[in-house]
Amino acid sequence: MLRLISTLALLFALALPSVAQQAELATTPDRSATGGAQTLDDVMARQRGEAVDDEFRREATGDPDSAAGTMDQLGTLGGASDPELWRALRFGTADVTVSTADKRGRVLVQDGGMWWLKIRQGPLIKYGLWLLAGTFIALALFYLLRGKIRVEGGLSGRTVERFKFMERMAHWTLAGSFILLSITGILGLIGRKFLAPTFGLEANATLLMVSKFIHNNVSWAFMVALIAVFVMWVLHNLPSRTDLVWIAQAGGIVGSKHPPAKKFNFGQKIIFWSVIILGASVSLSGLSLLFPYEITLFAKTFGLFNDWGVTALVGLEPLPTQMSPQEEMQYSQLWHAIVGFVMMAIIFGHIYIGTVGMEGAYDAMGTGEVDEAWAEQHHSIWLEEVQAKQVLSKSRASTPAE
Ligand code: HEM
């Protein structure tokens, strides 16, 4: 599982440099006309969203020693102007005193995090929401083309138990918490950009405070339910030979053939493992956000990719293995949100098939009982097993004690 999580992290890491590469520095302009200070070209380039090499002004943070004494004529208040002070804060050279003993608290402005801020405010929101909208549209089209998958020959009226109470409890805790986490997570991401301009900063702040409280606390229910679901269903989700038949017949999604299946068919196994692996990954990155700086994941993972030669294999420069604690958090935030969006898209598909997409499916999680005709159509091997057990227990019950 760790390998899989690492592979997913690699894909993420591969995607990031391309964004970072866009920030490749433009050619160094001639700044002699301004005596080495910013030029109009610099300002214009920044306004166009291009990256400007700030090296030339990193050190331009004033020199208190060369200042005229404060009591002198034209004496200054310390030899550093406001811009110089802000520059020193931005590039981490200001002499900052903070009340926390933790030196990480002394980073008041983190210039190295600008790439993250831009991705978070731009592509992350844009592509994340498009992924959800695209999935929704694809499912709507599928519904229009395929319609509801019906139980052929109608319902039998006889039912069989599919999920026990504990299984349904675990499922609905997982589902309920995931839906809450998704809504509050999205609100936190888009609030400042989309809600604040319409509803005002105050309303946005209140909403996000409540959102964050829900998000942070409900996450525990999600993690507990994820473990419960894993323990209860893992054996039913191991690969089996019947999966090959299911794959060969494309799950009977198109056409009227219904391949035989055990308790879970191959499509459901994909859902199960996606939920488990992505759920574990989103939980881990969430924990690293919940306990700032305590769980650092990315420098170590990137180091492994470099050592294994994976980055070289795909023609990339070695990934960064030295990161400031703030950068670790930034990678965690992006990873958390990306995995969250991917999971939401997958869950859209799952909710579709569990409700409007398939007749009789919802009952499995609603009452725990499914119609025998539905079970025969979608999980024939499982039904046979259940019926064989029923016959056995009945015959045991009717055998007179010796
Ligand atoms: C309102 C939302 C949801 C509905 C209506 C729903 C419905 C269902 C149903 C009917 C089943 C049983 C299918 C069967 O009998 O074969 C199921 C199984 C399952 N559900 Fe959900 N579910 C929802 C949300 C979620 C969420 C949010 C997650 C995870 C984050 C989730 C994870 C699972 C898993 C792992 C299984 C077992 C594998 C499978 O059947 O695909 N469900 N769900």
Structure description:
The protein is mainly alpha-helical. Helix 6 (about 125-145) runs parallel beside helix 13 and helix 10 packs antiparallel against helix 13. The protein is elongated, with a radius of gyration of 29 Å. Mean pLDDT is about 90; it is low at about 15-25. A two-stranded antiparallel sheet has the order 1-2. The chain has a domain at about 120-395: Fumarate Reductase Cytochrome B subunit (Up-down Bundle). The chain contains 16 helices and two strands. About 60% of the residues lie in helices and about 0% in strands. Bound molecules: protoporphyrin IX containing FE. Protoporphyrin IX containing FE binds near residues 175, 275, 347 and 355.
Under CATH at level 1, the class of the domain at 122-394 stands as Mainly Alpha
Task: State the separation between the terminal residues, measured CA to CA.
Answer: 51 Å
Q: What structural class do you assign from the helix and strand content?
A: mainly alpha
**Judging from the principal axes of the Cα atoms, what is the shape?**
elongated
Secondary structure layout plus pairing:
Elements: H1 2-22, H2 40-47, H3 55-58, H4 82-90, H5 114-121, H6 123-146, E1 159-161, H7 165-199, H8 201-233, H9 242-248, H10 266-290, H11 298-308, H12 310-313, H13 325-354, H14 362-366, E2 369-371, H15 372-378, H16 380-398
Antiparallel strand pairs: 1-2
Protoporphyrin IX containing FE is lined by residues 162, 171, 174-175, 178, 229, 264, 268, 271-272, 275, 347, 350-351, 354-355, 361-362, 364-365.
